[in-house]
Amino acid sequence: MLKQEKFSIIIPSLNEEQGLNSILATMPRFIDEIVVVDNLSTDKSVETAKTYGAKVIIEKTQGYGRVLLRGLEYITGDVVIIMDGDGSYGTESLEGLCFFMQNNEYDFVSGCRFPLDNPESMPFINRFANYFISWAVRIIYKIDLKDSQSGLMIFRKNILGKINVFNPGMGFSQEIKVKAWLNNGIICGEKNISYHKRLGTVKFRKIRDGYRILFDIFRLFSELKNKI
Q: What is the pLDDT of residues 48-63, one digit of tens each?
């Protein structure tokens, strides 16, 4: 049983009507606050979120990290959950992750998709890219993080005062994890989760976004090199 804390969840959305419907319809009862940050969707993402009682915030400037940073301005919980809105991260993992965090007294827990329980949930090229990028993160930063690109993470809100995360793009996910893992005042852990085929249109642009993520790894290393 989870200890009594206030749990807030942030879900980024850009035309994720299908995914949001799947996620919000199965949201566990222990979640106290749902914040959907919409990046100017043209489908019924906003209407879907409101139907399930989510607080909807509009972020007009494009960017995965920018959307999440916006959401962090509005949440009020003690514990923050971030998960993608495409349905690839099932809500069935949430209670186990939160219990794992509380039971081990972690400040930050990242969901690890690998090894995949269903190989068909992720195309081979995406798997290869994720393995390579996560390997690079482990080697460069000397941290034990198996899945640096996971879009499902849980952390205590008070850690945000200890790290400065500002990446407005896809690199947000690895930046917040790397900075948390390198901070001696933040206790971090990783736990395996289930991963499903995404619902709706794929937003990730393999070459362009992959290049930017790799660039961000080295930019971040330059920023943190005195702490490694």
A: 999 999 999 999 999 9
As a whole number of angstroms, the distance between CA 37 and CA 59 comes to: 7
Residue in the block written with tokens 């299908």: 18
Sign of the Cα pseudo-torsion (195, 215, 142, 173, in order):
negative
Question: Once rounded to an integer, what is the mean pLDDT over residues 115-125?
Answer: 92
Cα separation values, 102 from 188, 189, 190, Å: 12, 11, 13
pTM of the model: 0.92
How far apart, in whole angstroms, are the C-alpha atoms of residue 86 and residue 200?
7
- The 8-class DSSP code of residue 57 comes to E
Angstrom distance (rounded) from CA 113 to CA 153: 11
Contact 101, 78 (CB under 8 A): no
Residue where the block lists tokens 């330059």: 222
Coil/strand/helix, residue 134 = helix
- Torsion angles phi and psi, residue 91, rounded to 5: -65, -15
In CATH terms, the superfamily for domain 7-227 is Spore Coat Polysaccharide Biosynthesis Protein SpsA; Chain A (3.90.550.10)
For residues 14 and 44, what is the distance between their CA atoms, to the nearest angstrom? 10
